[in-house]
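Running this now, will post back.
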Amino acid sequence: MDPEFIEIDDILINTEVFDIKFNCDLNKCKGACCTMESEFGAPITKEEIEELDKILPVVKEYLPKEHADEINKNGFWINKFDQLMTRSMNNRACVFVTYEGDIAKCGIEKAYRDGKISFVKPISCHLFPIRISKFGGDVVRFEKYHECNPALEKGKKTNINVIDFCRDSLEREYGIEWFSKTKDSVIK
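Update: finished.
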């Protein structure tokens, strides 16, 4: 079946984000989105690199020593195939991962939640499981990963869909008005 899209203010949205139920279950996935096997980390923008450069001393206080040492030695980002990304530790964890027991979490977000910085985390991470592709404009779509199966199960139980799960990040990216207009278009 071909995916269906709606368009709001020149942004195409795959209707899966309205239909699929999703609610992270960190106790089951253990923060898999931050530790997926890859030699690359998360996509990051030039502006985010500049912001992270400013707050890096605070963020490093939240990271395991091995991660902070990697940042000190090689920096926190790379440019591969003209794509800016965070570094990966041992082809597994994002360099900004910190752990609470056996659950991977974002050290940037922890510093933000503690009120130490005003930057929550890179937008690609904040939007997850939504990905934005560029195809003559933005295309908002749901990215499927088997590691997120527990989130699909929990989403069904809690009746939360992808767009509502990602509300804060979508409002950050496109604005409150766009989000409201998008939600209103689906309700009609």
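The first strand starts at residue 5 and ends at 8. More later if anyone needs it.
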